[in-house]
Amino acid sequence: MSELNDKVSRWVRPEVRALNAYHVVDAAGLVKLDAMENPYAWPQVLRDEWLDLLRQVELNRYPDPSSTVLKKQLRESFAIPDGSGLLLGNGSDELIQLIAMTLAGSGRTVLAPEPSFSMYPMIATFVGMKYVGVPLRRNDFALDMGAMLAAIEQHQPVLIFLSYPNNPTGNLLEEAQVVEIIKAAPGLVVVDEAYTAFAEGSLMGRMAEFDNLLVMRTLSKLGLAGLRLGFLMGPPAWLQEFDKLRLPYNINVLIQVSARFALTHGELFEVQTRQIRQDREMLWQQLEALEGIHPFPSHANFILFRVPAGRALELFEGIKARGVLIRNLHGSSPLLEDCLRVTVGTPDENSAFITALSDALGLPL
Ligand SMILES: *Cc1c(COP(=O)(O)O)cnc(C)c1O
User: CA 133 to CA 122: how far, in whole Å?
Assistant: First the structure.
């Protein structure tokens, strides 16, 4: 056994041994408001139609390696500009990895505001790149432009990620500031629009203006988290390079068939996301009304909120003990002290959460 351990420590890259594997809490039996999933299933008629399609799938055959039909459907559904390239990933996480692998090199830097999506620093580490996190402003999580521009000047990052809206804070960065960063960046800027269905704003319409802007989206937060489909748009010259590192059949037949089917029923996702946006406002008001709770404005399908100092872990556990799983962010970044994050669920799930939180706080119900 110790010989085995010796071999592992001798040969596994030190930076990999130092990592902790991405941890997902077991949600069995709990109301699941931790992962920004759309809480709504499909109506039975649609499920039946979808299952009919799956029956015809030939699992003994490899999928279309370039997902031709699905790409056509995506271009139509999301009005992707004609001049833009399109690259698909097994979730946008895979696209982040592809971009990073393509640009990796010793001494090269990935830069992003802090706090932001945890996969940016993780994947930078996976591929051996340096990661620089530039703190957002403390009170409203807006970009600190002085600090961003200085960090860009100093580190000359090959790659900048901007989550638009930002996870886990929920705010939408200023478009004019994003553009200023694109102009100042020596390398690529990836605008990650995972939450665009819940926001008013996108850089997609401005892609033609810049040769270093990529816009990334995913079907996960829209309502298809189980499917794993992300897509990347921007100048074909960049995407062709990433495509060389893509494993040939990363988008399997079940994804291709199911995503095509789902996108032909886009109106369903519109209804669901509109409902989630409305319920987000209601949930925000309810949080705001609780003594000691400070919710931050959100343009996504989750709300970040601050709890009384020193009580984040206790309240997170108290809410969980009452049957609702959310996310504790205290300790993950200096700016997220005493912060928890809740996904907007169904109206019933949201009230279960508010009841659990009030009760854990010791407030009268
Ligand atoms: C959830 C999330 C993703 C990952 O989406 P997948 O397509 O499910 O891999 C990417 N970026 C941000 C900011 C996210 O919150």
Answer: 12
Residue whose CA is at the smallest distance from ligand 1 atom 11:
194
What is the distance in A from the centroid of ligand 1 to the CA of 37? 11
The amino acid that residue 16 corresponds to is V
What single-letter DSSP state applies at residue 334? G
Higher per-residue confidence, 24 vs 51: 51
Distance 348 CA to ligand 1 centre (A): 25
Q: Which of 62, 49, 104 is nearest to 261 (CA)?
A: 49
- Kindly write down the DSSP assignment for every residue of 153-207, as one continuous string: HHH--SEEEEESSPTTT-PPPPHHHHHHHHHH-SSEEEEE-TTGGGSS--SGGGG
Amino acid 73 reads Q
CA-nearest residue, atom 15 of ligand 1 = 167
Task: Place 365 in a pLDDT band, splitting at 50, 70 and 90.
Answer: low
Distance 218 CA to ligand 1 centre (A): 7
Cβ neighbours for 274, distance < 8 A, ≥ 6 positions apart: none
- Find the helix or strand (DSSP H, E) in which 289 lies: helix 266-289
Cα(256)–Cα(211) distance, integer angstroms: 29
Residue 316 neighbours by CB distance under 10 Å: 22
Mutate to test the pocket of ligand 1, among 34, 93, 222, 332 (most ligand atoms within 8 A of CB): 93
pTM, whole model, 2 decimals? 0.96
**3-state helix, strand and coil shares in percent for the chain, rounded to the nearest 5:** 45, 15, 40
Cβ 161 vs Cβ 110: under 8 Å:
yes
* Per-residue model confidence as pLDDT tens digits over 115-170: 999 999 999 999 999 999 999 999 899 999 999 999 999 999 999 999 999 999 99
Q: Could you tell me the distance, in angstroms and rounded to a whole number, from the CA of residue 226 to the centre of ligand 1? A: 12
d(CA 118, CA 332): 9
Pairs from 23-27 (Cβ < 8 Å, separation ≥ 24): 25/325, 27/325
